[in-house]
């Protein structure tokens, strides 16, 4: 190895560029093989980076230095000096190589480099050399949209001015005479728009940062200025794109279309307000809607001829963007029709086959933009296309879009026919099943096709969405058109949605007889919809006879539903399995009205079965009493925990369908939508509380807080360092070690941040990012090394109790003459709370309680806290969210838990709280908290009840989760309740309970001793002969002496408490109503 390094060193010191490049490649090869070639670092720095050499050699030298395990205090100055000097080098290739390396730099080096080299960067963008302009545009297009740079610009006005100038120059370079430069400038603008529109955080930055209002305002300003430039010079940009080669023309489409859409929809005005939130002088665009529509039409006319291109990617790009323009105010269905036909032609010609999922997604997402006739004609064809998709999530999304559009068309056509318009043929939901293949699948009993189950489930779940109130949409766009059409069909009758739902039930009736390898999710959906319709028609469906004023449609629907009920009873006799019966009972039981006792026809079926099971306990189905991991008694979606593959497939399909339906019908609003509707204040996020890591007498003050990014599984620790000495510290090193599940992405065990020239009492910011590998407690260990003898070559002996590896010792020994001996300051570890690795998991109470019994891992603990209050006055008089006995658990609302449900018994200050969460890595965590007040030893009703005893029960899908929680229960309670609850060991709980029981027994014994002696019992004959009478000679009533067991008495006492609570709530509701 020494001979090889000597040979490489000799080649590097030669003046031959070929020998130097070969030597660098050989060194990179050895480094990639895991061999240590650090001895070449000084030679590479002096002979290549600091000396005139070719651009290729300088690029290879930079790559080699980054690959070597060099300490940052050696590597960072080399990188900065070499890049800064090469940027002003006369050879444009060398300058291009230098500026091309900017995106690979870590965040802490960018600020100083960009600030010092801004003039050279601006000159490079205007250089007469095409290669330098191209390299500058490519580098800045990757660098400027980054999150860390946006944050720097938000806090550094000088850098913000430079970056704004560079963006303006990038927009101008879209008109550059060189095709490569112009195309790259278009790509840079597209990347800026995508970063802001999709709100995707850039993965390019070395340190993960969370942007706030400042970074958002920076991006909004850049995007608004770029949109104004494109819109004002759209004709010139269109002309420039027409003379580009076909392979480069594709990159010019999206920036033009996006800018036109932002202007036509008025979003650019929102961006201006976001960029300057406090400026009230910002006015909207003065262009009229007609001028905007003309501009959009010009872009459509520009793109339309390319739909007949022979290049499939170009046809697809143009078609997708034309669909986006068809959705702006004033858009025409002809634009969407032309784009849809062109995209479908790619499918028919079997071209662009690798993008068939994207083709289907594009069409079904924009299906509502087409005219009514074309929508109807596409339904059957789209079903065949969806059947051929490989990814299940793509199929679910496409089916959700098709089903929603079909229901929308059905409602719209029916309402139009009621208003006297000519009906359009084929608009019924039943038309979806007119295809021969779909019809055969539906009527076949033994078919194993999953597609028919997916179709029935998606259609039924979409019908359920129609029964819910439609979401409010204030702005124009995709959702407003769909919701407007749905509102048009449901606005003149609350039960109009039941008509297409009845069609769905009729056409899906054969699914009850399916043999799906014990899969029953589709059948379950069908039964729930049928029971829902029966309940509606029987309880609030209106009149049923002609004498009562019923219309022909009402009578027809009533007859159809009655026939479906009878047919269901006949079908159930053929497939009378416990699973199907259980699902029907479950669906019916959800509609029992226990307060008014209103029943409907199908409920008698369930009541008869329940009565039969009660009278025949020996024949009871064992699944009712024991959780076997099968639906409906457990409802989780963790495939590995199901004993049967069919149950696992059911839960997997249910999860996919629910996710697709939720994202389509009631999607979470994007941040840009929130900004348009609620203003910029909605994005305000309070920074987490910082904790101090140093002591009061330490020479440096350090406080830290962290920000978590569950998407990438990273945690960023932000540090504030304050020099408390009276001296200026020329150099301070911040070393951060990791423990637990944390790791550095580069593979090193610790990271170092070098801070220079720390002035006294002047705070300095620094940050470190680490990844999280699994659910485990994590800590970051911060150590500060400051050099009081930096540059003097002095020494100082400081003993320490730490050990370092040999390589670190050698590096320190070599640096000691220059740096001097460091003073080491060890800080307190920064602990990451374990709940920080959780995410809220929204689920219904029914789903939660079905899931709970089947979770295999469980841990329990007891905690206590005190609260102020006295008896019923402190509990029943308060609202649930402000009850004083919940004061110790109020911080859970700010933790990453979803509160599924809560039950309160205010008369005894007791409660049950249920929470659901998931780990970053997919594991499910459920937590129940049972609370009861500890009554004081004096039994007077006016005494204070100041202690709450809480039982925490945590169940999880993986035993490793509960083991980590159980390893430190007090730490878990502190993390969840912010230290408000104190852990009580079980032996102390049992001892306290035994003490209370002993005192109670002693009191009972005293009461018994104080009672008079009981007379001897009479015989049965005497009791029968003599009738009991009171002092007035009247017969006595029944005795109040209880003959119940202890368990029965406790159960009845709990019932009495619940009834008392219920009566109290009824009184409150009556008083509020008055």
UniProtKB/TrEMBL annotation:
Biological process terms in GO annotation: endocytosis
Source domain of life: Eukaryota
Region entry Disordered, spans: 1012-1048
Biased composition (Acidic residues): 1022-1031
InterPro entries xref list: TPLATE
Protein name: Protein TPLATE
């Amino acid at each position: 190895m020494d001979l090889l390094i000597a040979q490489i060193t000799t080649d590097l010191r030669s003046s031959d560029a070929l020998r130097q490049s070969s030597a660098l490649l050989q060194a990179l090869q050895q480094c990639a093989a895991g061999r240590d070639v650090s001895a070449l670092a000084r030679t590479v720095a002096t002979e290549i980076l600091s000396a005139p050499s070719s651009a290729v050699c300088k690029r290879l030298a930079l790559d080699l230095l980054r690959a070597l395990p060099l300490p940052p205090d050696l590597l960072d100055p080399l990188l900065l000096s070499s890049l800064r000097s090469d940027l002003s080098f006369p050879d444009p290739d060398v300058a291009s190589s230098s500026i091309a390396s900017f995106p690979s730099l870590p965040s802490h080096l960018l600020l100083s480099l960009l600030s010092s080299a801004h003039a050279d960067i601006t000159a490079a963008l205007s250089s007469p050399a095409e290669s330098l302009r191209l390299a500058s545009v490519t580098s800045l297009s990757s660098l400027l949209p980054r999150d860390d740079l946006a944050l720097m610009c938000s806090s550094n006005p000088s850098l913000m001015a430079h970056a704004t100038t560079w963006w303006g120059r990038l927009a101008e370079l879209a008109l550059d005479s060189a095709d490569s430069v112009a195309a790259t400038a278009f790509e840079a603008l597209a990347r800026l728009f995508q970063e802001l529109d999709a709100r995707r955080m850039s993965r390019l930055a070395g340190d993960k940062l969370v942007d706030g209002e400042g970074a958002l305002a920076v991006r909004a300003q850049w995007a608004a200025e770029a949109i104004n430039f494109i819109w004002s010079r759209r004709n010139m940009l269109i002309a420039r794109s027409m003379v580009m080669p076909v392979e480069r023309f594709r990159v010019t489409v999206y920036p033009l279309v996006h800018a036109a859409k932002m202007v036509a929809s008025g979003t650019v005005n929102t961006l201006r307000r976001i960029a300057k939130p406090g400026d009230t002088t910002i006015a909207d665009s003065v262009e009229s809607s007609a001028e905007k529509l003309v501009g959009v039409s010009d872009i459509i006319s520009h793109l339309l001829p390319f739909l007949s291109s022979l290049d499939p990617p170009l046809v697809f790009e143009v078609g997708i963007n034309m669909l986006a323009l068809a959705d702006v105010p004033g858009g025409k269905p002809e634009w969407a029709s032309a784009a849809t036909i062109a995209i479908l032609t790619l499918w028919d010609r079997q071209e662009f086959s690798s993008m068939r999922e994207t083709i289907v997604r594009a069409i079904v997402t924009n299906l509502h933009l087409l005219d009514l006739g074309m929508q109807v004609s596409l339904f059957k064809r789209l079903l065949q296309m969806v059947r051929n998709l490989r990814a299940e999530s793509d199929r679910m999304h496409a089916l959700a879009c098709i089903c929603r559009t079909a229901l929308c068309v059905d409602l719209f056509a029916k309402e139009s026919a009621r208003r006297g318009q000519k009906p359009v043929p084929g608009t019924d939901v039943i038309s979806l099943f007119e295809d021969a293949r779909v019809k055969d699948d539906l009527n076949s009993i033994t078919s194993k096709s999953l597609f028919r189950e997916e179709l029935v489930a998606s259609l039924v779940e979409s019908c359920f969405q129609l029964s819910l109130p439609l979401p409010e949409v204030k702005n124009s766009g995709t959702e407003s058109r769909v919701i407007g059409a749905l509102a048009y069909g449901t606005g003149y009758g609350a039960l109009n949605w039941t008509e297409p739902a009845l069609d769905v039930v009729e056409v899906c009736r054969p699914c009850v007889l399916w043999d799906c390898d014990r899969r029953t999710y589709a059948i379950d959906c069908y039964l729930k919809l049928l029971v829902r319709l029966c309940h509606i028609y029987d309880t609030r469906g209106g009149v049923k006879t002609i004498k009562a004023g019923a219309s022909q449609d009402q009578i027809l629907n009533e007859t159809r539903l009655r026939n479906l009920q009878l047919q269901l009873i006949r079908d159930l006799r053929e497939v009378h399995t416990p699973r199907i019966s259980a699902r029907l009972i479950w669906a019916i039981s959800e509609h029992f009205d226990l307060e008014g006792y209103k029943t409907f026809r199908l409920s008698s079926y369930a009541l008869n079965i329940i009565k039969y099971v009660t009278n025949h306990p020996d024949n009871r189905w064992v699944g009712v009493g024991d959780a076997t991991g099968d639906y409906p008694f457990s409802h989780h979606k963790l495939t590995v925990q199901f004993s049967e593959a069919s149950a696992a497939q059911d839960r997997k399909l249910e999860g996919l369908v629910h996710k697709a339906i939720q994202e389509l019908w009631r999607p979470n609003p994007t941040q840009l939508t929130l900004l348009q509707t609620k203003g910029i204040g909605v994005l305000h996020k309070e920074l987490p509380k910082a904790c101090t890591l140093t002591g009061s007498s330490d020479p440096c003050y350090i406080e830290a807080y962290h920000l978590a990014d569950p998407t990438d599984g990273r945690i960023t620790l932000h540090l504030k360092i304050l020099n408390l000495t009276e001296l200026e510290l020329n150099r301070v090193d911040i070393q951060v070690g990791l423990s637990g599940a944390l790791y550095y992405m580069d593979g090193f065990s610790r990271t170092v941040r070098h801070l220079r020239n720390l002035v006294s009492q002047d705070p300095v910011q620094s940050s470190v990012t680490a990844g999280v590998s699994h659910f485990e407690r994590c800590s970051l260990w911060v150590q500060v090394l400051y050099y009081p003898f930096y540059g003097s070559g002095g020494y100082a002996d400081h003993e320490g109790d730490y050990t370092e590896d040999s390589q670190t010792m050698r590096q320190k020994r070599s640096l000691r003459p220059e740096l001097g001996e460091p003073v080491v300051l060890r800080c307190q570890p920064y602990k990451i709370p374990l709940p920080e690795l959780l995410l809220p998991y929204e689920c219904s109470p029914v789903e939660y309680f079905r899931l709970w019994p089947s979770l295999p891992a469980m841990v329990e603990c007891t905690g206590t806290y005190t609260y102020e209050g006295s008896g019923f006055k402190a509990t029943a008089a308060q609202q649930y969210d402000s009850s004083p006995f919940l004061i110790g658990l109020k911080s859970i609302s700010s933790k990453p838990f979803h509160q599924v449900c809560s039950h309160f018994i205010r008369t005894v200050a007791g409660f049950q709280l249920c929470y659901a969460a998931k780990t970053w890595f997919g594991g499910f965590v459920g937590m129940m908290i049972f609370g009861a007040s500890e009554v004081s030893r004096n039994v007077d009703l006016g005494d204070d009840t100041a202690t709450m005893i809480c039982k925490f029960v945590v169940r999880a899908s993986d035993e490793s989760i509960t083991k980590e929680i159980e390893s430190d229960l007090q730490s878990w309670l502190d993390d969840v309740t912010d230290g408000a609850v104190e852990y009580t060991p079980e032996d102390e709980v049992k001892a306290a309970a035994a003490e209370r029981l002993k005192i109670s027994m002693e009191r009972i014994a005293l009461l018994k001793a104080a009672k008079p002696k009981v007379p001897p019992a009479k015989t049965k004959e005497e009791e029968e002969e003599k009738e009991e009478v009171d002092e007035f000679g009247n017969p006595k009533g029944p005795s109040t002496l209880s003959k119940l067991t202890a368990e029965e008495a406790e159960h009845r006492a709990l019932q009495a408490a619940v009834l008392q609570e219920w009566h109290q709530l009824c009184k409150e509701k009556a008083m509020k109503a008055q």
